[in-house]
Amino acid sequence: MDRLYHNIIRQHFKSDNQMVFLTGPRQVGKTTISRTILDEPLITYLNWDVKEHRAEILKGAISIGNYLNLQRAQETQKLIVFDELHKYKNWRDFLKGFYDLYKNDIKIIVTGSAKLNVYNQTGDSLMGRYFPYRVHPLSVAELIRTRVPSTIISSQQCIDEDKFESLWNFGGYPDPFLKNNAMFTRRWCKLRYNQLFKDDIRDLTQIHEVAQLEMLAELLKHNSGTLVNYTDLSNKIDVGVNTIKRWITALKNFYFCFTIKPWHKNIQRSLLKEPKIYLWDWVEIKDTGMRVENFVACHLLKAIHFWNDMGFGDFGLYFIRDKEKREVDFLVTKNEKPWLLLEVKNSGKQSLSEHLYRFAGQLNPEHVLQAAFNLPYENIDCFSYKKPVIVPLKTFLSQLV
Q: Could you give the angle at the alpha carbon of 134 between the alpha carbons of 128 and 140, nearest 5°?
């Protein structure tokens, strides 16, 4: 299937010669995207996990250049994909040398299922030599359109109901979404889970207590959208608070979960420290209310990552909560100023949140919305209203990325 990221990379190589760094979770489609943006004969694919490919990489930049005949004049630039290269201790030095030698002769994509800065063991910087693009699972908007938006907000458009149901029930990872089958999804999730903990985290970090780490992951599944209580988690798993913090950082680095922080500027008696936690795969969450909030959190994170990666501005994702426990689910900031205040509800019959009104008055964001999951799509521009309003979640998400 053609994805938004195909067109992002195509657009990148039309105007820029920096390397493309594609990061994102396992099985999100990074390798497929990289290998299908150009004609197959122009692509060389080297995967660090493949023994023969690893041997080629270890021979060095000049050896690979000779293998690709990059010293010879050519009509069309070739493309090389380095997959899982962050597992190579000296990957930054290797890429710096390769790019400096051949940047005018070849397009370069580097992919990784862990964040590409996790295993930085050299002080040499690649600054100016690459642009990062974070690949997310499928979303409502991406199922509607795959062109690269020229503005941060797109026009509203109705998603096919079957596609929405598949996205909600089976998640945004391409394989289970396309299969649209509950048995396949359960098997796929189990295999991906085992690969994440048994292959990636155990083999690539200093964490050896894999059973306890899996216990932590299970607890996080039942606490999506709640404040992270490090002390409570440490008591349940019988490890120290600092260990819990280190393990959650590892889970974030390998795209199991992500956290958002509380916004405290201009909020009286605001919460200052405790973040809320969400999963990258909302299918893991059984509680409907928690899943709805996590579903929206994933869509918002995808949008702000895209906006930041493409240079639309400096966007951030937060939530609002004060010491009286008054809360609004999400705040999106633009250039460090409140831009969108969003409350998420299951039902459209619920009245506008009093907390939404309260914090809107304190922050004065450009947009104040309450999105309802069960409302049918309406052909309205959610971002055209200048007052707090209730909108269908499907309409709102269709205007993102």
A: 145
